[in-house]
Amino acid sequence: MNLKTSLKMDDKLDPVILEPLKTDKEKEVEKKQNKMIHNGFDLIRNPITEIPKLLDPLFPKVSSVSLVGSSDLGKSTLLRQFALAVSMGDTKFLGWDLKAEHNRALYVSTEDDNDASTIQLKRFNEVRKKEADDFKSITFIYDTYKLKETIENYVKENPIDVLIMDAYLDIYSGTNSKNDGGQIRQFLTDYDQLAKKYKFLVIWNHHCKKGTQAFEPGKDNVLGSQSFEAKMRLVCEMRPDLVDDHRRHLCFIKGNYLAPEYKIESYVLELDPNTLYFKNTGERELFENLRIEVKKKEDLKKMVIAQHEEGKTLREIETDIRSQGYKISKSSIHRTVKAYKKDD
Q1: pTM of the predicted model, to two decimals?
Q2: Which of 55, 181, 195, 203: disulfide with 225, CB 3.0–4.6 Å?
Q3: CA 307, 316, 213 angle in degrees (round to 5)?
Q4: What are the Cα distances from residue 286, in Å, to 66, 68, 251?
Q5: Is the Cβ–Cβ distance between 190 and 64 less than 8 Å?
Q6: Rounded-to-integer distance, Cα 36 and Cα 32, Å
Q7: pLDDT digit string (tens) for 37-53?
Q8: Cβ atoms 57, 96 nearer than 8 A
Q9: What are phi and psi of 34, to 5 degrees?
Q10: CA distance 101 to 239
């Protein structure tokens, strides 16, 4: 029996005496276990009074959130714009307070490469007019081979505020059905734990089910297993405007700790078609007005223009179209008439 074993058998010995006798592996295991256990005494003495935010009051500083929607809406464009805002030290994003600590972002893009990213950054810079050095704090990954390991190796040396995962279906590594709730939850938990370990926010770009634009924005529209939505702290659905092709609606359909008023009306964004840069219009729209009814978008435009040419007021046009069972707002009618006059 060696000295170490002999001493460990004596449970009356002071732990301070035993500490130098522990192997590095034993010390690492003990250190990890201590981090997993949290005493209420320490928690109640924590000075925070609300969940720390990265984008106040929407995005938590540390957690998993998602942006969902149909294809070709500009979800990736918006997420890239957010990542750049974080990396450049902006204090505002679309009007909300941005509270980055490290001013560094990591963007995983499965659909792009260096050439595509170069063009996207140059378009962005047509608006922001930044120097090349200002882009040093955003990093892109295109290859998903051993992705989790690659991300962890990077964030160990380069603390980040946000990790963008674009897109979920390309990154998900479940071996069976993409609707397997157990596998999905475990997969997302692995990245969620990584975010908590290194104190950053992870944002997943995901899709909605086909045909969901016939319904109001909601959690049931998210593609695949309910386990995806359940694992997210916040879910935002992007919707197209029913009249203006350059407008998008941000709809917060789930938000733990988010006040109810954020989850009943959309935030209306406008996308510049040349620079692909989003701006917040300051307008909002009720979720119920975002459903695509029997009439297509172009049909609604034609109805509005026809009644405008008849000399009807905006209110009269709104009343008449709504009486036929279609959902349209006065602000949407105003934008249609304004665009028609501009083109005329």
Answers
A1: 0.78
A2: 181
A3: 75
A4: 21, 18, 9
A5: no
A6: 7
A7: 889 999 899 898 889 99
A8: yes
A9: -65, -35
A10: 31
Q: Are 286 and 265 in contact, with CB atoms under 8 Å apart? A: yes
- Distance between start and end Cα atoms, the chain: 97
Question: Is 268 in a helix, a strand, or coil?
Answer: strand
**In the β-sheet with 53-56, what is the strand arrangement from edge to edge?**
59-60, 53-56, 96-98, 92-93
* Helix and strand element counts for the chain (H, E): 13, 13
In the block, residue with structure tokens 């301070």: 16
Topology of domain 53-290 in CATH is Rossmann fold (3.40.50)
Query: What pLDDT is recorded for position 294?
Result: 43
Residue 4 has pLDDT above 70, yes or no: no
- The label of the residue with tokens 């997969």 reads 187
Q: What is the largest CA-CA distance in the chain?
A: 102
Residue 171 binned pLDDT confidence (cut-offs 50, 70, 90):
very high
Amino acid at 7: L
Report the Cα 192 to chain-centroid distance in Å: 14
Quick: pLDDT tens for 286-327.
998 898 764 466 778 888 999 999 989 998 898 888 887 677
Altogether, the residues listed in the chain come to a count of: 344
Cα separation, 269 vs 82, in Å, equals 14
Contact criterion met (CB below 8 Å) for 286 and 269: no
**DSSP summary character for residue 221:** G
Q: What is the sign, positive or negative, of the torsion defined by CA atoms of 225, 226, 231, 233?
A: positive
Question: Angle CA(210)–CA(328)–CA(274) in degrees, nearest 5?
Answer: 70
Alpha carbon of residue 141 to chain centroid: 18
d(CA 292, CA 328): 10
- Of the candidates 285, 220, 218, 212, the one whose C-alpha atom is nearest the C-alpha of residue 247 is 285
Q: Which structure tokens are listed for 6?
A: 């002999």
> Taking the domains of the chain in order of start, what are their residue ranges?
3-44, 53-290, 297-343
